[in-house]
User: Fold this.
Amino acid sequence: MTNETNTRGEVTIDLDARYVMRPSYEAIEAIENQTGRGVVALVNLAAQNEMRMSEAAIIVTECIKAWGKQQIAAGDVSAEAKSAAGASVKKVES
Assistant:
């Protein structure tokens, strides 16, 4: 991860491309619903090095999706924005 990109708390992350993690209200709600934990509890787990990898993956995924959705809403129809928003990603069944 690199540094914060602006005052919204966005952070860039390099995976196969450069993405931005945006902690929107929608992302936080999705994170809490999927993990079954409140955001404060997740922060405390992370601070104690007790967060599960699946919880960290949910946080990263939902924040990247929030950024992609914002980019598309702003008129960015690039493949990167669509991929980040989940528009071109196939769901993996476990």
Observations:
- The chain has a mean pLDDT of 78.
